[in-house]
Design brief:
Largest sheet: 5 strands, parallel
CATH topology of the largest domain: Rossmann fold
CATH class of the largest domain: Alpha Beta
CATH superfamily of the largest domain: P-loop containing nucleotide triphosphate hydrolases
Number of helices: 27
Strand content: 5-15%
Strand order of the largest sheet: 2-3-4-1-5
Number of strands: 13
């Protein structure tokens, strides 16, 4: 007989010889011992992991002519020496038919199979059909087989092997026992390769066999096929083939993982030039960009698994040396960084499949890795902002004077001393924004022209007026440039509360938070202290007051009032023009020279208010449109 490839020569002939499928072999042996033989089986899973092999072994066990318990067959395993076992092994058994469903997939072939199933087996106990690649059978053909599967003759057994069980109709799957095969573990493949190398008298390095086992990717047949190719290309030493790791890498067109370890070290250090130089060396050596991207994706995946589960996790189906290498690379990055790296390289690998300039896209993907570490995670950015808000005093009404002083200016008065607090962490985009602002300022200075002042809105005018109105009593105050949190001045505990100062602080806070209408309205209101209440009499009806000073604006007012030293309860009270409280309105009158002030002083407007009990809700300056 001519040469047989290793995958056929060392094909298992007993259940015990099948590697990595103990859950299937144990169940089938128990079923044979109990006499629970199903009329239909579906074997599904990855390629080259033993689906068809186990179907043949099961057929041999069912039709084996040697009785169980004899010296030739002590268990339910087939004896392997009787005529039935030998014929099934050779593929010429009359009662065991192996059909390639990829080519015999039509309804006519299934009808012939159904007709043949009616007849008893010629010699053996069962008539068995093994349908390989069963998912290729058409729906019409499956429908023709349905009735036979539902009520088959006692002597008929169907075995279907497939890599895509989801393509088999549910009506077929529900009538069969489904066995899902597992990918063969790395250690099982490596053990089998060592056994075969010893039997074939091949001198093989452990690193070389580990590369072959890893290249199998869970498929025993793939690993044996690559091993066959490696033996054919190996050099002879004392008449024996000698397998080396470097020779196998050249045969498979791969590079050692030490290259990817160096790439990740350069990425960790932000050395873009080193990344590009390593890539250039690999590409100039003739390596395919697509193959490099595929291998780098696998290495990144192993690094991520080492980061998550450690070097000894079962998620890593690689050798001990590669586990240690993946662990060293995992120490350089966090899980988030490795996840982003893997996403970028997967997208790069997809791009290489349909891009013309593969080299450029591979280089671009690797350069992206070097720059990804400059990005801040969104959760970290948000967490930093929340920390700054807590530190600035937005924690609620129960915050201490020290917390309010921190929010005011970063200085806390303690026993007559001023202690500087740590500055808040700047935004990652602050530098770019400052650079743009400084560039505009430099451009204006270079041109010799001062930038034209921008016209202030009424709300901004209120805020500026409140900021500039600092009496001598404010000498002991801690001022703030980050007043956007509270929009107020933090007074020392011994400073008396001034309603007008509280009003200015509240209006400034509202203006900075975007509630300009509420700021202008409350600036015109009358602020009075009545015992434990700070009453704000607003010249506005109650419905309009609720719309203008809504829940958010009211919360800003109370926070700013507390920060400005108001210990009284803040109450907003509406007031009709001309009604109670109208005489007090001038205390909070509109700003002199504003459009609102001109409208209130107009005799026609006053006459209309008296006649119709009118209310001025908004003032529009039509002169601005001219």
């Amino acid at each position: 007989m001519g040469y047989q490839v290793l995958a056929r020569k060392y094909r298992p002939q007993r259940f015990a010889d099948v590697a990595g499928q103990e859950h299937v072999t144990r169940t089938l042996l128990n079923a044979l011992a109990q006499g629970r033989i199903a009329h239909g089986y579906i074997f599904s899973g990855h390629r080259g992991i033993g689906k068809t092999t186990i179907a043949r072994i099961l057929a041999m066990a069912l039709n084996c002519r040697t009785a169980v318990g004899t010296p030739e067959r002590e268990t339910q395993e087939p004896c392997g020496v009787c005529d039935s076992c030998q014929e099934i092994r050779m593929g010429n058994a009359v009662d065991v038919l192996e059909i390639d469903a990829a080519t015999n997939r039509g309804i006519d072939e299934i009808r012939e199979l159904r007709e043949a199933a009616r007849y008893s087996p010629a010699r053996d106990k069962y008539k068995i059909w093994i349908l390989d690649e069963a998912h290729q059978i058409t729906d019409a053909a499956f429908n023709a087989l349905l009735k036979t599967l539902e009520e088959p003759p006692e002597h008929v057994v169907f075995m279907m092997a497939t890599t895509q069980p989801e393509d088999i109709p549910q009506t077929i799957r529900s009538r069969c026992q489904h066995f899902s095969f597992h990918a063969v573990k790395f250690d099982d493949i490596l053990t089998q390769l060592r056994t075969i190398a010893a039997q074939e008298e091949i001198d093989a390095e452990d690193a070389a066999l580990a590369l072959l086992a890893e290249a199998g990717d869970g498929s025993m047949r793939d690993a044996l096929s690559i091993m066959d190719q490696a033996i054919a290309s190996a050099t002879l030493a004392d008449g024996k083939p000698h397998l080396e790791a470097q020779q196998i890498r050249e045969l498979m067109g791969s590079v050692p993982n030490t290259v990817f370890e160096r790439l990740l070290e350069a990425v960790s250090a932000g050395q873009t030039s080193t990344v590009i130089e390593e890539t250039n060396t690999l590409l100039n050596a003739g390596n395919s960009p697509s193959a490099l991207a595929r291998q780098f994706v696998r290495y990144l995946r192993n690094t991520l698994m080492a980061k998550i589960g450690g070097e000894n996790t079962d998620l890593l189906q690689i050798s001990a040396d590669e586990r240690a290498r993946a662990g060293r690379s995992a120490m350089l990055f966090g899980e988030e960084d490795l996840t982003r790296f893997l996403q970028v390289m997967l997208r790069t690998f997809d791009d290489l499949n349909y891009r013309q300039e593969q080299r450029f896209h591979l280089e671009l993907g690797l350069v992206k890795l070097a720059h990804l570490q400059r990005l801040l995670p969104v959760e970290e950015l948000l967490s930093g902002q929340m920390t700054e808000r807590r530190a600035s005093g937005s924690g609620g009404p129960g915050q201490s004077t020290e917390r309010r002083a921190q929010s005011a200016g970063g200085q806390v008065p303690v026993a007559g001393e001023v202690r500087a607090t740590a500055p808040a962490r700047p935004s990652p985009f602050e530098a770019d924004r400052n650079r743009k602002i400084s560039g505009e300022s430099a451009a204006g200075a270079g041109s010799g022209e001062a930038p034209a002042p921008r016209a202030l809105s009424p709300a901004e005018a209120v805020g500026r007026a409140a900021a500039e109105a600092k009496p001598p009593a404010a000498i002991g105050l801690a001022e703030t440039e980050s007043a956007a949190t509270d929009g107020a001045l933090a007074l020392a505990p011994d400073t008396a509360m001034d309603p007008e100062r509280v009003r200015d602080a509240v209006c400034a806070a509202l203006a900075r938070e975007g509630h300009e209408t509420a700021a202008e309205t409350l600036h015109r209101a009358d602020w009075r202290v009545q015992g434990t209440t700070l009453k704000v009499v607003v010249p506005m009806r109650k419905p309009m007051l609720k719309l203008t000073v809504n829940g958010e604006a009211e919360a800003i007012c109370r926070k700013a009032a507390r920060a400005a030293g108001a210990t009284q309860k803040l109450v907003f009270e509406p007031s009709e023009y001309g009604g109670a409280g109208a005489a007090a309105v001038p205390a909070g009158a509109p700003l002199a020279g504003s459009v609102e002030s001109a409208a209130m002083e107009n005799p026609l407007v006053r006459r209309a208010q008296e006649l119709f009990q009118a209310e001025i809700r908004s003032v529009v300056d039509l002169r601005e449109s001219k």
